[in-house]
Amino acid sequence: xxxxxxxxxxxxxxxxxxxxxxxxxxxxxxxxxxxxxxxxxxxxxxxxxxxxxxxxxxxxxxxxxxxxxxxxxxxxxxxxxxxxxxxxxxxxxxxxxxxxxxxxxxxxxxxxxxxxxxxxxxxxxxxxxxxxxxxxxxxxxxxxxxxxxxxxxxxxxxxxxxxxxxxxxxxxxxxxxxxxxxxxxxxxxxxxxxxxxxxxxxxxxxxxxxxxxxxxxxxxxxxxxxxxxxxxxxxxxxxxxxxxxxxxxxxxxxxxxxxxxxxxxxxxxxxxxxxxxxxxxxxxxxxxxxxxxxxxxxxxxxxxxxxxxxxxxxxxxxxxxxxxxxxxxxxxxxxxxxxxxxxxxxxxxxxxxxxxxxxxxxxxxxxxxxxxxxxxxxxxxxxxxxxxxxxxxxxxxxxxxxxxxxxxxxxxxxxxxxxxxxxxxxxxxxxxxxxxxxxxx
Length: 441
Prior knowledge:
- The chain is an all-alpha fold.
- It has helices spanning about 5-10, 25-30, 35-45, 50-60, 70-80, 85-95, 105-115, 120-130, 140-150, 160-170, 175-190, 190-205, 210-220, 230-240, 250-260, 265-275, 285-295, 300-315, 320-335, 335-350, 355-370, 375-385, 395-405, 410-420, 425-435.
- The protein contains 25 helices and no strands.
């Protein structure tokens, strides 16, 4: 009993509607739904697709311990044999910084070469770089163009990426109807992510009447589709929050465990938090750290920040500021605005690294420019006191007002303090700058 049928048996009768899923077009992904022993045997015999499937499983822990180094070697072997998708996988390794230094320029080069050879996975990768502004200027039009090329090439994931652009209004007018149609197309292809995204529209009432029960139904369908880990995580989250179902934290943990076993990093993170807090399961700080580390190794931003905080504050582990800095930097390197803020704060205060105020201020400025309100408050304080920057109360007031508008609870006091002695003209200028402010994102 393997693949989708195994998942149906594992999840019970609620999964029955997905028993007739269409077969996957991607042969490597299809292999990944086979038992590990079969994939390992193919790889050991030198089968190219088997080696690539095993590499994917090594990369997310479905073949035991996460092993990016071994995965890299397998991708390199397949790429050397001329497989374009393997070259795209090497681009992804460069993008994520797995077993190689994180290098968006290298990822771009590898993706372009693979895309030129027809790899739709590489086209998706190029779209992600442009959408995220990773190593290039953010360009939603370019992202859309590459996602559409991937879709035309038959990539079943592309519809979800295009749907996200329409759902968020990124580079196109926000259009939930188009997003829903694209997500439905993905779901019709048997893709769990399509069900997840449809469920999220119902959960949030975006483009449809809010219906949390319908959202749960869709998440459950996604939990037996191809790539079910994310849907399992969402089912766990609705049980944890009691949204659309009776609250049941123990049931949530069951779903998190299933998603984590399939390599879903969000499930790993949620399971780690549950183990840390004792939500639906006995507190186990050591096991929590293990799952948190796995999620962080898979570049989960929340896990990287959480690990940084654990090591900075000694939560379940000895205080280790160097490790805290490592994980804060990992998040910042992914272009995360919270990660940039906390890394900047580490540089300013010498947490796990020598004090470097110019570098710290630059990171906090970037985070503030991207709209993170805590960074805006800290930057306002820096300008108010002249810490690391020339003292300038007008600029300070601008950032403090923005921080207050974003919800920072300390900013209103900062505003009161900085306005003392300021001219009405400078206060008016600061407010004008606030009205003209547009986040970089």
